[in-house]
Write a structure and sequence with these properties.
This is PINc/VapC family ATPase. One of its GO terms (molecular function) is RNA binding. Residues 526-560 are annotated as: Disordered. This protein is α/β, with parallel strands linked by helices and 628 residues long. The protein has 5 domains: 2-126, 3-Layer(aba) Sandwich (Rossmann fold), CATH 3.40.50; 138-235, Beta-Lactamase, CATH 3.30.450.90; 243-447, Rossmann fold, CATH 3.40.50.300; 460-529, K homology (KH) domain (GMP Synthetase, Chain A, domain 3), CATH 3.30.300; 559-627. Helices cover 29% and strands 28% of the residues. The chain contains 18 helices and 32 strands. Strand 20 (418-425) and strand 21 (431-438) form a beta hairpin. The longest helix has 18 residues, at 48-65.
């Protein structure tokens, strides 16, 4: 018998096994050089498949020395171009051609290869990929009923996390460190068990790192050079709960079934986020909802009715595209961590899919804070209208998130009304936070002063207001600035005497602009008039500091610009200051303050008082400058 094996059957070790059981007794085994090249490349990349294939070639060489087979290497090594087209079947075609030239039996464990070879008229021996009933992994001996995870590493004493949720202990579970040979044996046992057992699979395989799912265990195996030693981390869920086991379950169930929701389940590591997510998934599935999961790696413990998806082609956005075709009612996204994850979560939520996202957070509000800057502020309540915070395995806080138009808490002027995201405690109905834009910054204001800590003198709004006023005045004044809030809509600013004229500006125009932007009346005085001067108080400043202010008038300074007058606007091009607040001056005299657009320009509507003054300066050929 003459056989030509391909790479798959060599890696699987099935050629030598067929010799041992007599199927290939006294056969001539012609190993293509293309197979050797593939195995060598995989071994150089640190892949176990390459080393396993090379071990099989060693076994075949031993069988040849014993006279049980004739072994030869045939064909040419593939060129770099052919290796680059391996994914397109170039190497597979070379191997099939060698089998055809020698009128040999083509042996493979690849069903696609087998079908193609049959279509080409070759004699094919298809051997199913090796599978065995794997009993238990060696590392399972480290687990008991209270063990959540086991942590093993070369030259260290094995450790484990044990205990109830929220009361985990990280403790040693052996007396002696584990040597490298033992760690290597355990690592190979994990990987081989996942390959050979129908209850396991390899979730991720990269040089230096493999993530394995084996029954209820998620096991990460790291090797040098990715890690500084062989490391095995095995995790197993120790608790499975039903939604009814949690406080406030009835309210949550009603909320989830009322309509598709955007829910963030948050908490610190080990708090029980995934356990709650599993309970929610099972509850939704048993109440006539099509439920899917998005996980990388897959480790949620859900029933077979819930399909668990991972990153398609390494990308969750591709998984989302596929899921939109499947049309689930709810999708559990574990874990939402990076910007791409939040974007995918938002995209699916806005497409009408109910989304349950698992998010790391140390406080309930932090889950929403992680959305800020990643999605448009006004869309947050449409993306996540419920936040559930889990602590020590129990539901600690539930927030309802919605948008309204109102004057933010702590402000009184009606013209300061704006869209505000209200975060309300779901159980008590008490408002907990407001999120809104204040002077072009997104601020999150706690409405419970206890958040500020014992003895806090100012509310969150007061601190933000003082900080914004101080920042504005320091951009003008050169000397020390002290801010005192007299009420929620009035403040006194104390500056050096030399800075008074600069801060007030021509005809009071500069300070009026600041007042209009902040919505606060500001009284400007010298430090001599400050009864608190020298007591170390003020807006968080203990020592006088330089204010970094602009010119006080009379001398052109800053960036010289050339305004353009159109039918509707006076357009000022400003380079290098996109998004910044700048002063526009004519011949060194203050005209107004504005924010540069992302396109790098300032537009002033013609017919306004500012535009008239600006056009007058242009007509008199006065230099127009922009000061940062």
């Amino acid at each position: 018998m003459h056989v030509v094996p391909d790479t798959s059957v060599v890696i699987d070790g099935r050629v030598s096994a067929s010799v041992e059981d007599g199927s290939f007794a006294e056969a001539t085994v012609s190993v293509p050089e293309a197979v050797v090249a593939e195995l060598e490349a995989q071994a150089n990349d640190g892949l176990d498949s390459g080393w396993e294939g090379l071990s099989e070639l060693d076994r075949l060489a031993s069988l040849a020395e014993d006279g049980r087979i004739d072994l030869e290497y045939v064909g040419e090594r593939p060129t770099a171009g052919e290796r680059g087209r391996a994914s397109e079947g170039e190497i597979d075609a070379l191997i099939r051609d060698l089998a055809e030239e020698r009128d040999a039996t083509f042996v493979t464990s690849d069903v696609v290869q087998a079908e193609v070879a049959k279509a080409k008229g070759l004699t094919v021996e298809y051997i199913s990929p090796k599978s065995r009933d794997v009993g238990a992994l060696t590392i399972e001996d480290f687990f008991d009923d209270e063990t959540m995870s086991v942590h093993l590493k070369t030259d260290t004493i094995p450790k484990a996390k044990r205990g109830a949720l929220g009361e985990m202990r990280y403790e040693e579970i052996a007396d002696e460190p584990t040597d490298e040979a033992t760690m290597d044996e355990w690592a190979r046992d994990v990987v081989d068990g996942a390959k050979e057992s129908p209850d396991g699979f390899i979730e991720l395989s990269e040089p230096g790192m493999k993530i394995v799912q084996f029954r209820d265990y998620r096991i990460a195996v790291a090797r040098p050079p990715f890690s500084d030693g062989i490391e095995i981390t095995a995790v197993r869920p120790i608790a499975q709960t039903d939604l009814e086991d949690y406080d406030h379950a009835d309210e949550l169930k009603e909320r989830l079934l009322e309509r598709q929701r955007g829910v963030l389940i948050s908490g610190s590591p080990g708090a029980g986020k995934s356990t709650l997510a599993q309970a929610v998934a099972r509850y939704l599935e048993t109440h006539d909802n099509a439920v899917k999961t998005m996980e990388k790696p897959r480790d949620l413990q859900v029933g077979p009715e819930i399909t668990q998806y991972t990153a398609l082609g390494g990308r969750m956005d591709k998984t989302a595209d596929a899921l939109l075709m499947v049309r689930p009612d709810y999708t559990i996204y574990d874990e939402v961590r990076k910007t791409d994850d939040f974007e995918v979560f938002a995209d699916m939520r806005l497409a009408g899919v109910g989304m349950i996202g698992v998010v790391h957070a140390t406080r309930p509000i932090d889950a929403l804070q992680r959305l800020v800057g990643r999605v448009e502020l006004g869309m947050i309540p449409q993306i996540a209208d419920t936040v559930v915070y889990v602590d020590a395995g129990a539901i600690d806080t539930v927030y309802d998130v919605r948008t309204t138009v109102k004057v933010p808490a702590g402000l009184t002027e009606e013209d300061l009304a704006r869209p505000v995201i209200q975060v309300t405690d779901f159980q008590t109905g008490d408002p907990a936070y407001e999120i809104y834009t204040f002077n072009r910054q997104v601020v999150t204001v706690p409405l419970d002063d206890e958040e500020d800590g014992p003895g806090a003198r100012d509310s969150g709004v007061d601190r933000i207001a003082k900080g914004e006023i101080e920042r504005e005045i320091r951009s003008i004044a050169r000397g020390y600035v002290d801010v005192r809030l007299k009420s929620q809509n009035k403040a006194v600013v104390y500056v050096e005497e030399d800075d008074i004229s600069s801060v007030i500006g021509k005809g009071g125009g500069r300070i009026t602009d600041v007042e209009n932007r902040l919505g606060i009346d500001i009284d400007v005085r010298t430090h001599d008039e400050n009864p608190h001067y020298g007591d170390g108080g003020g807006a968080g400043v203990d020592e006088p500091t330089s204010g970094g202010g602009g010119p006080s008038g009379g001398q052109p300074d800053g960036q010289l610009v050339q305004p353009e007058i159109t039918s509707r606007h006076v357009v000022i091009p400003v380079e290098g200051h996109d998004g910044e607040t700048v002063e526009v001056q004519a011949n060194g005299e203050y005209l107004f303050t504005a924010t540069v657009s992302r396109g790098g320009e300032i537009q002033v509507s013609r017919g306004s008082a500012i535009a008239d003054e600006l056009e007058d300066a242009i007509d008199h050929t006065e230099p127009i400058t922009v000061v940062s």
